[in-house]
Amino acid sequence: MDYANNLRSTFISALLPLYRNETVRPAHSDARKLADFLESAIETHPDLSRDEFGLNRIVLALQALQLAISEIGLRGKVLQAFLLRTVVRSAEQLVTVERFFDVETARTLQGFLKVSAIEVKTEAMHTDNFRNLLVAQAGDMRIVLMLIADCVCRMRCIKDAENVEAQRRVSTEAACLYAPLAHKLGLYQLKSELEDLSLKYLEHDAYYLIKDNLNATKRMRDAYIERFTAPIRQMLDAEGLRYHLKGRTKSIHSIWQKMKKQQCGFNGVYDLFAIRIILDAPPQKEKEQCWKVFSLITNRYESNLKRLRDWLTVPKSNGYESLHITVKGPEEKWVEVQIRTERMDEIAEHGLAAHWRYKGVKSSSGGVDGWLADIRSALETGNETLLSESLAADSKEQEVYVFSPKGDLYRLPPHSTVLDFAYTIHSAVGNRCVGGRIDGKNYSIRQELESGQTVEILTQNNQTPKAEWLNIVRSNHAKAKIRAAVRELTASDSALGKEMLERKMKNRKVDWDESLMNQLIKKLGFKESLDFFKAIGDNRLEINHVLDTYAELGRREAGQAERAATRKAEEFSMDSEVGTKAKGEEDELVIGRDLKGIDFQLARCCNPVYGDEVFGFVTVNGGIKIHRTSCPNAAALRERFGYRIVKARWAGKGQGSYPITLHVVGNDDLGIVNNITSIISKEEHIMLRSISIDSHDGLFSGILTVMVDDTQRLTALIKKLRGVKGVKAVSRS
């Protein structure tokens, strides 16, 4: 019994640092209350006392608390909540915690539980998005700081762990998740320790190779540092400066990264250490004295100004201030020198705890770094309430981070929905989205997402985007994709409706009049022609009613002013500049079932010539345009308007001239253009209409327009042009 009482007294004494700033109630009372709760929980669930490595959870948590108090400067309810985290595993227990302790402790503990619920996936941990997700789920940056301290203590204790798989998982979290967060917060010592320990467990051989080499060369390094710093000490003493020097060897992890980056062995890494000059200077003379030391050193040793890093003028976003310069020391070795003051050095070594002690260090930027600026500000003032409340308010409008079923992590705007996530994955997935499965439960496309959820998109092939979806999504990306898809669907439906109307008008032998059609669209209550034709395509407008209204408008128009008779396609013959043939001439175009004498027009997009393989295309006005089968527009015409395509072939004998555009590329030699034009002028039945030459970098590019009678003469001309010395290519447009 005495042993149990002594053990309890020791445990309560270990809890007292949690309440060293408590002024409302006596610290012993709070410590006893917390001890009672923990004892009761362990007695009820003995399995909670040990973790997967066999370590005592409460002892490990107390070590993390001691580290957070001494190294980071944390205090208050977050420490109590962190210790309760060792025995509280579900959200249902939060009611008991709130009743037994207080609302703030329960709310902070809920943040710890949210972070613990995140399914950690190795692939996602390497990204900033995952670190942002952890911060967003915590909702209180003190929780993140406690997790960093916890990770450091755990890494210190698992060196002899038998569970190798768990050891590698925790080490990966330390390297990819908590070390980068510690760096952002300016906790450089903790960051360096996490990186070294993770390297020790993940790449054992590399770690001990570097460690053994560092130990073997320590005496040589110390001797070199002494030779290098001796002249510097003399100069600083002569100037009457107060200072002390440090020779700092780079971390094992940093050396390993250099070896991999430079693809060299240990001996190939030359900057294994840095010299740190730490000045004892008054605040108003800090920068002045740092630059004075910089001047003295660069006068004594050759410097590499490309390696100058001035974080005095503009400190890093995490508050780091220092002046770095690389100089060539004895034996032609490059040495990095860091110049800073006592204040700057403590901030660099201890991060937030030092910010708290030294007032006036300011830093701010967007995103997570903005949160880090908030936490510095709160720690500087020592206001715990400001620390939690300011961040909690800021987190309400934070971005949302969700997982795909494969474990990929996506970042979305605040209040994003299932439909937002679908369009983030792919526009085709978004267009066919009918809902989502969130953490195994089905939801509609309107369901708002929360950070940490796993979302699977449900699709159907018959689903199409709708304009009202714009009111559901939050991201600009999704809105742009929806607008584009709706426009495309509207244009397609509109084209279908217009085709339906045109066919019906042809059946009734009613001519198309653009002015009357515009009047009709307005009369029927449509602002846009696309909406009008889409209504016809969707069968929301009855075509016979539309045509009756159109005829009535035509009669009214005719009663007001005499209109010129509209000529039908059968009566219309358009003489084009490209040599259209009139009825009865030998060069006829036979269309469909060998009908002769049909008026036609040669398409300007491909300029057909007698002898080309061609097809006919019935235009909206009833005329026919002739295209080459190799026309750039042929595929689109056949796909969209296949019912308008008419078989066509040339008949009779070619007569007349057709304009053809040729592209000629060759060396920009003297006289080559004269050779080309000379060949064309000598050809019978071929006339050069225009020529345009552009010369650049020894090459010329020419565009020639020639008049030819048929494809045979055109083929012969191209062959002769290709034979001209210096001509590299001749092609027909």
Low-confidence spans = 1-7, 22-26, 353-369, 379-384, 386-396, 560-588
Q: What is CATH's topology name of the largest domain?
A: Hypothetical protein af1432
Q: What is the residue-averaged pLDDT? A: 77
> How many domains in all?
6
CATH architecture of the largest domain: Orthogonal Bundle
CATH fourth-tier homologous superfamily of the largest domain: Hypothetical protein af1432
Key terms for this structure?
733 residues; Hypothetical protein af1432; Ubiquitin-like (UB roll); 6 domains; 49% helix; flat
Outline of the structure:
It is built from 28 helices and 19 strands. A five-stranded mixed sheet has the order 1-2-5-4-3. The chain has a five-stranded mixed sheet with strand order 11-15-13-14-12.
Describe the fold and architecture.
The chain has 733 residues and is α+β, with helices and mostly antiparallel strands. A hairpin with a 5-residue loop joins β4 (323-328) and β5 (334-341). α9 crosses α10, α12 crosses α14 and α23 (514-523) packs across α25 (543-560). The longest helix has 32 residues, at 476-507. The protein is flat, with a radius of gyration of 41 Å.
Task: Spell out the blueprint of helices and strands.
Blueprint: H1 2-15, H2 27-44, H3 57-72, H4 77-84, H5 94-100, H6 103-117, H7 122-125, H8 128-138, H9 141-157, H10 164-184, H11 188-202, H12 204-216, H13 218-238, E1 243-249, H14 252-262, E2 273-279, H15 286-300, E3 302-310, E4 323-328, E5 334-341, H16 342-350, H17 352-357, H18 367-381, H19 384-395, E6 400-403, E7 409-412, H20 418-425, H21 427-431, E8 433-438, E9 441-443, E10 455-459, H22 476-507, H23 514-523, H24 529-537, H25 543-560, E11 588-591, E12 601-602, E13 614-618, E14 624-628, H26 634-640, E15 645-651, E16 658-667, H27 672-682, E17 687-696, E18 699-708, H28 711-722, E19 727-732
Parallel strand pairs: 2-5, 12-14
Antiparallel strand pairs: 1-2, 3-4, 4-5, 6-7, 8-9, 8-10, 11-15, 13-14, 13-15, 16-18, 16-19, 17-18
Helix pairs in contact: 1-2, 3-9, 4-6, 5-6, 6-8, 9-10, 9-11, 10-11, 11-12, 12-14, 13-15, 18-19, 22-24, 23-25
